[in-house]
Amino acid sequence: MKLVLILAVLGLAGLAYIRLAPSDPVRWHIDPRTAADPGQRGVLVRHDVPLPPSAALARFDGIVRSTPRTRVLAGTPEDGQITYVVRSKWLGFPDYVTVRAVETDGAAALVILSRLRFGLSDLGVNRARLDGWLDALDAVQQ
Question: pTM for the complete prediction?
Fold first, then answer.
């Protein structure tokens, strides 16, 4: 019985740590253009947008901020780079999404790095979330 109680307390402590651990902007708010490919721990994509960089990032920011359980960790559209923390619904696992807008021949490219903090694989969650955001961004363009 004591072992079960100890395991339950350790499990709850682990879940509390996942939910309450601080997010260090120095660690997570990095330039996605120079970041290593996250492999199974996330996704790194580039998405071209027929807008100036500041406008592209502002529209993308509006879409991301409307996502439940999402907050800005660092940056603004005016900075040209923003990092968000998106938490899973039930356990609050954090994913970090950094987006940078760069100019490309009068338009913009959004370079986006989305990765998990805990675990070995995101099981495609980051890719699916990004695809939804980028589909919404493309729909606004049309």
Answer: 0.91
